Amino acid sequence: MSGSVKKTVSIIDVAKLAGVSQQTVSRVANGSDLVKETTRRKVRAAMKELGYTPNLQARALRVGRSKMIGMVVKFYRNNDLADVLEGVSRQVSKLGYGIMMIPVDNDASETLSGNARYILSLNLDGMIVFSDDDISDESAEELSHIPTVVMGALTRFPAWWSYVDMLEGRISELVVDHLLSLGHRTVCHIAGPLSFPASVRRVEAWRAALERHGAPVPQYVESEDWMPDEGYRAAVRLLDMYPDCTAVFASDDAIASGAMKACRERGLEISRDVSIVGVDDVLGYFVPGNVLTSVRRDFVAAGSGAVRLLLSMMKDADKRGSRLEVVPELVMHGSTAKYR
Description:
Elements: H1 11-18, H2 22-29, H3 37-50, H4 56-63, E1 68-74, H5 81-94, E2 98-104, H6 116-121, E3 126-130, H7 137-142, E4 148-151, E5 162-165, H8 168-181, E6 188-191, H9 197-213, E7 221-222, H10 228-241, E8 247-250, H11 253-265, E9 275-279, E10 293-296, H12 299-315, E11 323-325, E12 329-331
Parallel strand pairs: 1-2, 1-3, 3-4, 4-5, 5-11, 6-7, 6-8, 8-9, 9-10
Antiparallel strand pairs: 10-12
Helix pairs in contact: 1-2, 1-3, 5-12, 8-9, 10-11
GO molecular function: DNA-binding transcription factor activity; transcription cis-regulatory region binding
Pfam families: LacI, Peripla_BP_3
Protein name: LacI family transcriptional regulator
């Protein structure tokens, strides 16, 4: 008899390739939070290379359900993730569910679509997606039986997924309305990296808000990263283009902090000479005496709301495609003032 028999890959093989214990592999397969993220990634890479599939279906058959909710996240400098996880954890722990973290990245094999078959193998009761990665039609169809809630800034996802809308456009409207109400002629904008859908939405909404008020629409500048140094460089370019700029909307607080530094180096006093607004209201955690007016979004409430949407879908399929809005709030800290 010719031909070869494909060897069954065991947990021992995965542990050997990853250089970890069998217990660690088991913990990763079962979604334990006792494993470091670097180790989790190494184990998952070994699972993929060997074609190992965790046998979670057997456990699910024993208990009727897996009692696991998948949390698909992109970790790239995601300052909001801790708050989202707090909101999610508050809800799922009350209901006896566990959370399985499923990290995604920009690499083709690590995107949401690239992880579709791995996600299928987990036999999840539901899934929350906190990422800006769009999903392919093929992968969406593969995962269509899993109740799913998406949050973040995805621009393309299945109609049967429910959605927590962080109202990115409303952020820009709040900032523009506030600054123009103070008498500023227009509002300059430092966008976040335009590879992020949230940045694109904020630019579009900023432009639309200025046009709605009949205000001039200046050329925006793009910060190449969500970091103070890049915000500083972008602000230098902006001030070179518009030396008489009196109002700046920065796409997040880190970019805004860099912009404030650039303004001060030009001899401009914050609020008296130039008003600046950021997004996320997190600067106070790092800078004593925070003076940056910012737009706050309640990601704890968003996480809790995502779980509530998910549970309603798990109980009633007709609830699929529901939407929850998390309304942003302008928080005054003193970096804006009336135009002089």
